[in-house]
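ok trying this again, last paste got cut off
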Amino acid sequence: MYQKYQREYSYKELLHKAASYSAYQDRSVFDVEQKLKTWNASEDDINKILDKLISEKYLDEERFALSFARGKLKGNKWGKRKISIALQQKKIGKTIIQKALSSLDAELYWDILIKVSEQKWNSLAKEKDERVKKYKLLQFLLGRGFESDLNQEAYLHLLNTNNDE
C-alpha cells in the first residue's frame, strides 16, 4: 500500500524547526517533544533540543501555564478544574498549575462564570421544571470546569437578579 514519505531532518534543522514552533506561541515541553517525534527525531536529539530550547528561554513551563490558563479562561470560558486537567495532560507540575490558577483574576473569573450561567439559563427558557433547569445549569457549569460551590452561588445570583426584574 501507499506509504507517506517521511523526510529525515538533521539536528540543526530539527533545532531550527522546534525553535520556530516554540517562538510562534508559548508551548509546553510536552507539546514540543510530541512535535519532534512527528518529525522522526531520535530520543537523543529530542533531549538535546529540549535542553537547548529551555536554556535559551524558548520553552518555559511556568510562562506557558500562565498564558494557557489566561487564554482558556478568557477565550474558551473554562473554569479552574478544566484548566487544571488540561495542564496535567500537558505534563505540567502541580506547583506550576497552582501558580497559574491562582494568578487568574478572581473578579474576571466571577464575571465570566455569571455571563456563561446567564447564557445557559436563557437557553433553558423553554424548560418548565425549575429543578430540571437548575440541574442542567449546574451540570453544564461543572462540564465547563467551574467549582461546585461557585456554581451554586452563580445559580443563587441568577435567581436573585431574575426575581428583581
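PB: full thing came through this time. The mean pLDDT is 93.
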